[in-house]
C-alpha cells in the first residue's frame, strides 16, 4: 500500500508544471499519468467485488489512455472554416451588442425607407443607403458617429434580423461587404481607426483606471469588427462570385499590401497598435481583435501555405534550380500518426505486473524474467510487447514497437519466427545533401587516404579509392541547392564588388513593402512584449509575470458576474479568449517567417534573430510544459452563443451541465493549429543553428517534446521528432539507448541527410566555442545586407561619386550657420591670416 501511494505521488508530480526536468525525464513525460491513476483508484473503490483478473483488464485499459486513442482527424490549413473564424471575433460578453447594432441600423433605415425590408431593396437603393451611412461617419459628434458605425457593422454582419438561417446570413454578409467596399467604406474606417489610436484622452483615461472593461474599447471594437469582417469575407473565394467581385478582391488585396494608408501598409499600423498596447501606453486596446485583423491582413495580402509553395516553385524556376523533390504539404497529409511512448501510468502498471509475476512464481531469476519479457517472438498477449517504457528501458529493444507496426510493419501473421522479419516499404521523404556536406565528406576522405585537402573542390577525386567515388556520386545525385544558398552567394558578391556588381533589382511585392515598413521598428515588434509577453500571458502555465499587461480588456464586462452560471460562462470566455490570442500570434509569426525566408534569407534571419533575443525559444517550451492533451481536447466554447447561430436561433436556457459538456468534437481545432504553428516556429528558429539547438538542450526540452508525442496527429508528431532529432547527438548515449522507440520514429518520419550523424556526436560544426562567433557573424551579415539595400544615406563615402570640376565646386551654395556668420572676422584672423602659407608647395 505504501508503494502504491509512492507511485501515485510520483505520477501526480509528473503532470505538475513545476516538476524538475530531471524528474520529467524519469517518468517519460506522463502528463496524463496522474489522472489515469486517480481514475483507477476511484474504480477500485466502486467495484470491490470484481475479480482480480477483470480489474486488471480495466486498469490496463485505463492506463493505456492515449496510447489506444484513435488518430485525430485534423486537416491543417491556413485557417478554420469561415463560420468558425467569424465566431471567434466576438467574445460571449459582447452578445448583447448584436441587438444594439440592429437597433441603430433600423432607426436610421426607417427614416429613409419606411415600408420595405433591406432584403427587398434594389441594388441602386442599397448603394444609396450605404453612401448615406458613409457620409454620416464624418460627423464630429462621437455618439452620433458611433451609432452610424454600429449600423454599418450590422450591415457587415449580414442584416441578420431579416434572415431565417445561418446560410442566409452568410449570403447577405458577402453581398453587404462587397457593397461597402465598393462605396469606399474601408478607407474611411482606416482614418477613423487612426483617430482613435491617436486619441490621447482615451489613452490617459485608460492608464489611470484601476480596472479596464469592455466599455473602454467600444469605439475601437466596432471599427475593428467591421474591418475584420470585410477582410475575412472578401478573401473567401467562391466559384459563384461575379467577375466584378473577383476584380474588387484583387484590387483590395493590392491596396491592403501597398503603403496607401499614412504611407505605410495597414499591417504596419496594426503592429504599431500592438507595440503601443504592450508598452502600457494604451491598455484599453482590444488586443484579440487587433491580432486577428493583423493575421487576416497578412494572410490575405501575402498568401497562405499553398501560395507559399507556388512562390517557391516559381522562384526555383527563375533561378534555374531543379524542381522540388516532393510537395511537403502532400507528404505530411499522407503520413499516419505513430503510437506515443509509454506514459507514467504505464510504468506503474508495468511495476505492478512484475511484482505480481514475481510473487506468483516464487522465483528470483530476474535475468530470466527480463529475458522472457524481451523475447520478440513471444506468442502470448501482444500488449505485453508495449509495456516497457522508453525512459526506463536501458537495453536495446528487439521487440516490435507500436511505432513500427503503425507506420511500416504489416499486420502480424502467424508464421514461424524466421518469416516475421519485414522491411520498410519506403521512407516518405527524398534524402537531401548540401554542398557543404559533400565538401566535409571529401575533406575527411582526402585527409584519411592522401594526407592533404583541396578546400572547396568537390570534383577532384584523384587518389581516392573506388568506394569513395561511389559515395561521392550518390551524394551528388541527391544534392539539393536551396533558394537561400543562392541569395547568400549573391549578397556576398554584392558586398565584394559594390561598384562593378551593378544595382540589385528588387521586386516591390507585398512582402517586400511590408519588410520595408516594419524594418525601422522590427526589433521592438519582436523584442518588445508584442510577440513574447502576450504569448506568455495567454499560455495556461503562466502565473504572475504578466500582471502589467491585461490581455482581457476586451472580454471582461463592466459588472462582474454574481451567479455561479455567469462565472462559469465568463471562465469559458476568458479561456477561449486566450486560446484565440495564441492562435493569432502563432499564425502571424509563422507566416512572416516563411514569407521573409522566400523573399530574402537575411530578412528571415533578421526577424528570427530578434525572436531569439526576445526569449521566444524558452517561451514556446514553457507553453508546451503542460498537459498538452488536455489543452488540445479543451472545450472552451459554447456553440449556441457562437455567431451567427446566436442571432438566428432562439437561445436555450444555459445550465451548468450544458456549459461543462461543451461540444462533441474530438479536439479543439484552434489549439491543435496553435501547437503545430509553435512547433514549426521552433523548427524555423533552430534549423542549422547549433547555438540555438544547444538552447533546446540547456532548457531540457526533450522530455517536454516527448510528452507532445502523445497527440496522435501526424503533422504535429513530425515537427516534434524534427526538434528531437537535431538535439539527439547532445543528449548522450544513455538517452538514446532508453528512447529507442523515439529514435525509430525519427528514422521513419523525418527526412534523412545521407552523411548526417544525427544520432551521434560526430558533427564537425558542433563545436561549442564557435556558437557565439556563429551568431555574431550572422548578425554582421544581416546588418550589411540591411545597410546596403535599405539605408541609402549611410553609404560608404569612398564609393560616392566625386565632383572634380573647380567651377562646379566653387559655384555650390553652402549654408553657413548663424553663429559662424556673426564671428566670421574672428575665424578669418585665427584660421587664415595668423597662419603662414607656403604658396610654392600649394601651387605644386
Inertia-based shape:
globular
Distance between the termini: 106 Å
Rg of Cα set: 33 Å
Category from helices, strands and their pairing = mainly alpha
Number of strands: 0
Residue fraction in strands: under 5%
Number of helices: 43
Proportion in helices: 55-70%
Low-confidence stretches: 1-67, 361-424, 542-547
In this structure, how is the largest beta sheet organized? none
What is the residue-mean pLDDT, rounded to a whole number? 80
Please explain how this structure is put together:
- By secondary structure, the chain is mainly α.
- Among the domains are: 82-322 and 507-749, no CATH class; 435-479, no CATH class.
- It contains 43 helices and no strands.
- It starts with a helix and ends with a helix.
- Residues 1-67, 361-424 and 542-547 have low confidence and may be disordered.
- It holds the Pfam family DUF3402.
- This is Striatin interacting protein 1.
- Belongs to the STRIP family.
- Residues 69-367 form the Far11/STRP N-terminal domain.
Secondary-structure blueprint of this entry?
Layout: H1 2-15, H2 21-27, H3 33-46, H4 52-64, H5 82-87, H6 97-112, H7 123-136, H8 142-156, H9 166-182, H10 185-197, H11 200-208, H12 218-234, H13 243-257, H14 266-278, H15 287-302, H16 305-318, H17 328-334, H18 344-361, H19 366-374, H20 402-407, H21 435-449, H22 466-477, H23 483-496, H24 510-518, H25 522-527, H26 533-538, H27 564-599, H28 601-613, H29 616-624, H30 628-632, H31 645-648, H32 656-661, H33 669-686, H34 690-698, H35 701-708, H36 714-727, H37 733-738, H38 740-749, H39 771-790, H40 806-810, H41 818-822, H42 824-833, H43 839-843
